[in-house]
Design goal:
Number of strands: 22
Bound molecules: 5'-deoxyadenosine, iron/sulfur cluster
CATH superfamily of the largest domain: tm_1862 like domain
Strand order of the largest sheet: 2-1-3-4-5-6
CATH class of the largest domain: Alpha Beta
Mean pLDDT: 90
Largest sheet: 6 strands, parallel
Oligomer: single chain
Shape: globular
Number of helices: 15
Distance between the termini: 50 Å
């Protein structure tokens, strides 16, 4: 029998992109064949996001469109995984009765097994548990449940052979009033440091040069066992020593967990990049309080100063929510002021989207009009874009070290052979230590290596340059 073919459609954050990669690798290892689109698939999976309503509605309409596919192909499997599956559970089946499988983010390692069961007509429909302590049938102690998280890493499913995301913790305990994540991803739990180091060594052995460590509040990573306590700074030190790993980043950091020791580790460890994503969410104390963030705007500013003072040339990025419940024009202006002051490399700006089941949905009115949310979003974006452009422009004339990611997506198709060069010259992209995208011409053989590029031009989010001959 021909192998069953699967396609995973992914929306949402880096956690989801990683989950889809791991799910694909697990399915491929179980004998299923991956596809790049849904065309010709026997199994279509949706990896979903619940952070904003829009992301959910997109999935429900895509599921609706699959009704026809399923009618004409009863043996086909439609699965919904990720945060929306976790949150909506039976509702997914009510709204889309043709769905065969609803599976929470903590259960993805069981995917091949569950799909095999469906093929045998045992029709498992819902497998959700936000809690990794009680992950479905095989319950174990904390340590046992973590030992089981030993994902299959196949280079062909990574964003690129040279880059990988690595989960170092699960869940979140912060319960910010607007956020559904603690409910969909469960309680905060760090992975054993030894497991993380082992996974990264395996990645390095298969060609990975850059790792992005993932956690909802990644800088509060802490693993304790009989041998002692491993903090985020300790973990970075261990990963820094892994042969082959050139670059280490971590996202997302919670402002109050950024200790001096961690900042010094970022400064001192050769392979840890001077890039920190530290979402502020808002610039007004009154709103931060309603959001149940555990710091004031002044404390956030103190952190920004501490980062710039400790790590020369550090790039900071942030997230902001505009139009949160009761946000006045004056409060919004305080966010604008913070963005002007902090000189972020970039900010991700979101319009508040009420999420049923959160503290804010229960206690506050979602009373800022959609048109006003949009206006504030655009206004803040304009301020940030101008700052991003200024920050980028400072690089013109400098030579930066770039980890080459490969041909740029917009690269011209017909590549020109360089006279005397060992391989073809094309438009390449890569990133600086502080995560700025650099576009330059060079041989594709540079992919996965560090190159020196002299910056000649800049745009808000891209630098352009020419390869230095010593690369
Ligand atoms: N509405 C809008 N944005 C949200 N975020 C989280 N929850 C919501 C919500 N209900 C944003 C926060 C977070 C980012 C990942 O998504 O800014 O940092
Ligand atoms: Fe959501 Fe707050 Fe946890 Fe981030 S820290 S995942 S915003 S609850």
């Amino acid at each position: 029998m021909a192998p069953k073919r699967f396609f995973i459609y992914t929306v949402g954050c880096q956690m989801n992109i990683l989950d889809s990669e791991l799910a694909a690798a697990a399915l491929a290892q179980a004998g299923y064949q991956p596809l790049k689109s849904a065309k010709g698939a026997d199994i279509i999976l949706f990896n979903t996001c619940s952070v904003r309503e829009h992301a959910e509605e997109k999935i429900y309409s895509a599921l609706g469109r699959l009704k026809h596919w399923k009618d004409s192909r009863p043996e086909g499997i439609v699965g919904v995984m990720g945060c929306m599956a976790q949150k909506d559970r039976e509702t997914v089946l009510k709204r889309a009765p043709h769905v065969d499988l609803v599976i929470g983010p903590g259960q993805i390692d069981r995917l091949p097994h569950l799909i095999a069961e469906i093929h045998k007509n045992q029709t498992p429909r819902i497998a959700v548990s936000a809690d990794r302590f009680h992950s479905g049938s095989e319950t174990g102690s904390v340590r046992e449940s973590f030992r089981r998280y030993d994902p299959i890493r196949l280079p062909e499913f990574r964003p690129s052979r040279y880059q990988a995301m690595v989960r170092i913790m699960f869940g979140c305990d912060k319960f910010c009033s607007y956020c559904i994540v603690p409910k969909t991803r469960g309680p905060e739990q760090s992975r054993p440091a030894d497991d993380i180091v082992r996974e990264i060594k395996t990645l390095a052995d298969s060609g990975c040069r850059e790792v992005m460590l993932l956690g909802q509040t990644v800088n509060s990573y802490c693993w304790k066992d009989a041998a002692g306590t491993v903090t985020m700074a300790d973990l970075l030190e261990r990963i820094n020593g892994i042969a082959g790993i050139e670059r280490i980043r971590f996202v997302s950091s919670y402002p109050t967990a950024m200790t001096d020791t961690l900042l010094e580790a970022v400064r001192d460890l050769e392979h840890v990049m001077p890039y920190l994503h530290v979402p502020a969410q808002h610039g007004a104390d009154s709103v931060l309080k309603r959001m149940r963030r555990r710091y004031t705007a002044a404390q956030y500013r103190e952190l920004v100063e501490r980062i710039y003072q400790t790590i020369p040339g550090a790039a900071i990025t942030s997230d902001f929510i505009v139009g949160f419940c009761g946000e006045t024009e004056e409060e919004f202006e305080q966010t604008v002021e913070l963005v002007r002051w902090a000189r972020f490399k970039n900010s991700f700006i979101f319009k508040y989207s009420q999420r049923p089941g959160t503290y804010a949905a229960k206690h506050y009115d979602d009373d800022v009009k959609e048109s006003e949310k949009r206006r504030r979003n655009n206004a803040l974006l304009d301020v940030q874009n101008a700052i991003s452009a200024e920050q980028s422009a400072r690089f013109v004339g400098q030579t930066v070290e770039v980890l080459v990611e490969g041909p740029s997506k917009t690269a011209k198709k017909g590549v020109l052979p360089l006279v005397g060069a060992s391989s073809c010259q094309t438009q390449l992209t890569g990133r600086t230590p502080c995560d700025r995208i650099v576009v330059f011409d060079g041989p594709t053989s540079l992919t996965g290596t560090l190159a020196r590029v002299r910056i000649t031009e800049s745009a808000p989010f891209t630098l352009f340059g020419s390869l230095q001959s010593d690369s």
